[in-house]
Specification:
Number of helices: 21
Shape: globular
CATH class of the largest domain: Alpha Beta
Helix content: 40-55%
CATH topology of the largest domain: TIM Barrel
Number of domains: 2
Number of strands: 15
Radius of gyration: 25 Å
Distance between the termini: 58 Å
Structural class: alpha/beta
Amino acid sequence: MLRLFVIGFLATATLAVGVAASVGSWAWWVLAAVFVALLATGVYDMLQKRHSILRNYPVLGHMRYLLESLRPELQQYFIERNYDGRPYDRDVRTMIYERAKGIHGELSFGTERDVEEVGYEYLIHSTVPVPEPQQPPRVLIGGPECTRPYSISLFNVSSMSFGALSGNALRALNGGAALGGFAHDTGEGGLTPYHLDGGGDLVWEIGSGYFGTRTAEGAFDPDRFAEQAAHEQIKAISIKLSQGAKPGLGGVLPAAKVSAEIARFRGVPEHEKCVSPPAHSAFTTPRELIRFVARLRDLSGGKPVGFKLCVGSRIEFLAICKAMLAEGAAPDFILVDGAEGGTAAAPLEYEDHVGLPLTDGLMTVHNALVGAGLRDRIKVGAAGKVALGNDIVKRLIQGADFTSAARAMMMAVGCIQAQRCHTNQCPVGVATQDPKRARALDVPDKTERVRRYHEATVAQAVQIMASMGVSDPAELSPHLLHKRISSTERRSYAELYEWLAPGALIVEPPESWAFDWAAATPDSFRALVK
């Protein structure tokens, strides 16, 4: 490991220079003092718990903090030449890191955004702001069939599996969720002790591989599911239909990465390729999906059950809505993932060219549920580059009831966006299964950072809403979010987009929805007509 090499080299060099100083000139003593200082710094770096970079890269890691101290110029120079533009921009990264560290995050000299740029979006404030509520609003998830509803935060941890993240990273996220009173999605890799370690509320995600609740042949195992779902920390169950970064695509964990530990939690053979198929085997039609939702709700003892998807065909989602109406049942929530979602395990073509962005997908789901008369019984979540308070408010206006974030929460726990996730060589111990690297992530310190980041971000969202004259998210409307559409024109979301009236699709579908509604059938995800 590099850290041992650095310490070993400095120790050897210090000894050699010390010997030379004992027989040489005074100049050797100066050099010896320098090496002693470097060796002491290296040892301290390895033992301290605040900075993961320094624990893995003693002495050398100080170069990063030197660049931070010289920001924005040199830091931005460094970032632009090491990242391809996909990570969050500098302002967002800075705000996440500073909130996680408990630093007050104002910036000097006004906005760095080009407010005249086409596509620029902004929220409308009120001349008469209202007082902020004493406690942040929460959202109750649970429809008529749910006997154990769950009150969820406006902002939560999105799905990240053990295997994608280290055990220490998951411990910190779950501990932060417990301290801050928000939910932590397990990801589709199965329920593990690392998800449970902090005592935080969990949303258990079930993917097409049914990891942690599968038979030896890879099918869904109801008995295993009921056993796992009974865990007190599991507050809701989410069926993953698709993921924003790779919709319509399953996953493969190479045999070399399927350790005995991962194999045990996923319920698969160790040291064999682990395949997550593109589609589920437990259902093949919209009706069967809704029946599967109802079945999981019963097996879990009445806990909220929903599904997560990146929206593709509007016809397919309308088919699910028709299945809800036909079956007289519905999920308790729907998580909408945007195509801008991140992962270290997807082809570039999928990340950039497949699936609807979160704004389009979210408004499609919201309007379809409203038009089908189902919106009042189903809560909608939004996941996709939600990082700051304004992101939360924007997604609530677009149709969400609550939000979730993966990338921003990773940054709060110490991720520096080195984009080495797929190599198992994460420099800060977040996205790695290498225990020598993961040890750099100090769980108690990062747990507190996650809590602080969540608390500050939700507080900012609540403050923004109060500045808009809104004391409850239900009072938000599309009129309060505007977009510049040309150099001389801007319009509100109420003007730019179509918003269906309750039950409109059932009574008389608008012309823009009529073809898709007619083509959708509850008995197939395929359209009735081409």
